[in-house]
Amino acid sequence: MTVPRSLIAPESVAVVGANDKIHAFTGASVHNLLRHGYPGRLYTVNPRRDSVQGVPCFPTVADLPEPVESVIVVVRAASVVPVLREAVGRGATSAIVVTSGLGEGAAGEEGYARRDELLAFLRETRLPVLGPSTTGLVNLADSYVPRAVLNQLAPEQVKPGPLAIITQSGAANNTVYNRAQAAGIGVGLAIATGVQLALSTWDALDLALSDDRVEVAAMVVEELGPLERFRPVLRRARDLGKPVVLLKAGRTRTGGAAVATHSGALAGDWEVQRAALAELGVVIADDLDRLWEVASLLLRWGRPARRPVRLGAAAFSGGEGAVIADLADDAGLELPPVTEEFAAFVGERLTLAGAANPFDPTGEVLSRPDDGIAVLDAFVGGNDHDVTLFALNTQAGGGSGGRTDGLLTRILDGVVRPGTRLAVSYWPVPGLSDGLERTLLDRGLPVFAGSHRAVGAISRWAAAAPLPAGDPLPPGKRLTVPPGVAYSEARAALAALGVPFAPARTAVTVDEAVDAAAALGHPVVLKGDVPSTTHKAAAGLVRLDLRTPADVAAAFAAVTAAGAPRVVVERQVRGTAELFAGVSMDAELGPVLVFGSGGSPAEHLADTAVCPVALLDTAALDRLITATGAGRFLAGRRPELLPALRGLLGILAAARAEIDLNPVAVTGDGLVALDARIAA
Prior knowledge:
The protein has 680 residues and is of the alpha/beta class. The chain has a 7-stranded mixed sheet with strand order 3-4-2-1-5-6-7, sandwiched between helices. A 6-stranded mixed sheet has the order 8-10-9-11-12-13, with helices on both faces. Strand 25 and strand 26 form a beta hairpin. Mean pLDDT is 91; it is low at 254-267 and 396-403.
């Protein structure tokens, strides 16, 4: 839906249902508009008042002295649609519905009926409505703050800026807004979409992207929706160079654990969504603070130019330096060694410090401050680091007597210069670190309460490095067989597309099975030719390493007794590794390619990567492969097989059906699929 600017910056607005209770939804919007200096024409509507908080009040919207561009609705649920209908009649082009009780679960049947009435009205009028059940929005850039709550920082404590915050939850929006502002990050726009019967978070993002003053968006999303809904908006953000940092709420499974080795179980809802978002350039956050922390780095530093990001850490504690090294390694950040020139300089200026990364300047930074500052400056400017972290301990960060406070100022004066990507962490200790955060923020530095928060934010910032684009995948053939086919039919259909299988024959009698084994050459594998299923072995439908006719005859009897009407006899293949390759069908994102380590323990290895087929190109396919240990193994040990693997995955992506190949053996000659399933 195209959202008019009147939603976030109307020239005239009426608050319908307003009163003087500023701590209630019914009065807070008017109070916030007044105290933030709304420059437009403000009216209130309430048949029982002549004025509200000093603002002229009228009995109905129809009684207003002029048409208004937007309305804020805080009436009871049963009156929402009549009020909106009246507002449209008076020329309103947008609305914010704060009122609850129109579709939330706790509203019951009556609430659902009201929701349906509102939906019918929206289909009829196409009125852009924010809500219902929303706390509204904050537009500091245009001094339009109709937010329906007061639990936010006062006007003198906030500032407009290039960050936009978009959430479904009003409370989450308020938390991120207040925390970001307290950390010195200007927020120009904050929108809570509520139940979002009309406008979604993606509509809000689209609107924010249209504002040249917005540079970064931070989002909390509960429902992603279909790929075709969010892909164009996120691609627009990428093309505009406006990073999006996103926290997905409700990303864990609440159902039973997946126990079958198949693509859907290995993919998982959040894994697929995360992969889609990452391919579209979104930076994933893991908590509410991480949203504004990463946004602050993007605003101050821009996007990183390369992957992996190279981190330099100056820790004023050897022990913390070791912890930072562990954190950085876990997060995929590089800690490159220092240069020979820096090592020599350290040897000239300090006697106790060793030249390393992380670097501990030791207590000499206190006893020999001139030398210590010179070495820290050289650490920042004389090594190949994309980012430097100063991890302060309590003594280096502040303390009594003022001595170390002055030293910190001298250190920062010596190392902070335009273009320096420097972050600072410290451990807040009341009475020892009081005022330190403000000192650091006033210098324009990103500040973190603990090195773990700093490393986590830097690692997420690193994920904002642009992904190289690839070429379209070669066109392939779609799978045309019906689902639920037997194993032999699945093999044949996939082999026709180009999937490599071990030689095999089908047998109905024991004599046919024995003859097939002799023709193929022992040892062989015997499988029940039943409709595609997972874990044939667990159902007694597979026998391995059959080396004699007697072995084959006994296996045939056992497998047919387990319910197989016939068997497939395959030449046994041994490989140096086993892979999993498949396609899962996601209800909202469509076919999803899955790849990783295979074999019977595949679902326990947690070594798979996924990507929606609609987002695949040659570069994304390579990222999918190397995101797994299995893929990195092949790239390092058998790189000559990568073209065959790419070809196999391309075949599956083009098939547009739910398919499992598990395992795919890595042999001396190439790749061989040893089992196949086409889902019913």
